[in-house]
Amino acid sequence: VSAELYDNTNRFVIKINMNSLVLFGLIALACVAGAEELYTSRFDSIDIDAILQNKKLLNSYVQCALDKATCTAEGKELKSHIKDALQNRCTKCTEPQKMKGRRAIKHLINEEPELWSALTDHYDPTKIYTVQYEKELKEIKQ
């Protein structure tokens, strides 16, 4: 089955056959199916520096992530994605989330090693992600 489309002056504009239409449909479907959904960007505007510079606030987020305290809405959202982000190299993270995550990790490693250690013990007890992200972690420490 094919169709030829003409404009109002009877000039040929486009010719579509069924194979082309099916191929186009499959490509479109693959693009939609292959597109990863990103985590919500609702909290992307959070001032990460204000959290990192406030020990009490930072500690409350860490305690939330460690299941040792109640969580704010932001803390719940963060905690719900930590394992998935580790497993999938943050492929569902928005750019602001990646940037703020790196900044938070750098701060924890360099300024709050006891909190970093507690988080890695909790989320990476077998050190699989520590090995997987070894290069990035070395760059952050510098």
UniProtKB/TrEMBL annotation:
Residues spanning the membrane: 12-35
Gene3D superfamilies for this protein: Insect odorant-binding protein A10/Ejaculatory bulb-specific protein 3
Alphabetical UniProt keywords: Membrane, Transmembrane, Transmembrane helix
Designated name of the protein: CSP4
Organism: Corythucha ciliata
